[in-house]
Amino acid sequence: MRRIMPAWRLAALVIAGTAATTSAARAGAWPEPVGHWLAIETFSDYHAATQGYGQFGQPAGRGRYVQYELSPYIEYGLTPRLTLGFQPRAQEVIQSNLPGTRGATGFVQFNLWARYAVWRDAWNVISVQGQLGIPGVQSPASPVLAQPGAEYEGRVLFGHAFRLPGGWSGYTDLEAGYRMEVDGWADQIRADGTIGIRPRRGWLLLAQGFNTISVGTAAPGGSDYNLYRVAFSVVHDLTHHVAVQAGLWHDAGGRNVALGNAGFLAVWLRF
């Protein structure tokens, strides 16, 4: 499942076409500056009542599901238009309805991607992105946390920067993608959006939505779910190279999937 991946530099590159400054949200449409790295370390604490389904839309009975995730996110500006990135996702999962309470640890998935800015000006950018999801590993085998098979995703991204009265500034980032599964799970349509508002220097307010819609037919026992998630967070620049973020996300609705809430903290390094 997709989690919130902050992308700290979005407002940095888009507000009035100025020099890069610290910002936040997911990687978004803008390319990373040539020769620059963005490293983000995110920790999330997620709790859900399974309501008959686990995190991948598989039958799980009733109970509680707790997920701790550590997910370093790293990307590099290879050319003025091309950005490369990767992200391993490590989790500890505790589930109380298997029967009894069980836990597992491991890597959910290892993601690799390339993002290319097709067109841009001082205020807007259109990009395309390809992503490969490499299957994870875990111990023990239950509860399930590791992605069992590879995933392939294509995505189109649009970013727009704007100014507001009172010296405020902001941006929007809209993304649509198709994720192909090869393990019997249903393919997915992804639709994500971010609004970022910078009310003063060194602060950024974020409102985000992440939507997953399964399409096609899953194999028996395979994942087939919809999920609609919203997130709100605040980012504060400690220095030009370091920022911190704190936020919450809420699963607002879905189908065949546990709905829960999470808090998350992150530290960004830019170099």
Automatic annotation (TrEMBL):
> What phylogenetic lineage does the species belong to?
Bacteria, Pseudomonadati, Pseudomonadota, Alphaproteobacteria, Acetobacterales
Annotated signal peptide: 1-27
Source organism of this protein record: Acidiphilium cryptum (strain JF-5)
Q: What is the name listed in the Swiss-Prot or TrEMBL entry for this protein?
A: Transporter
Sorted keywords for this record are: Signal
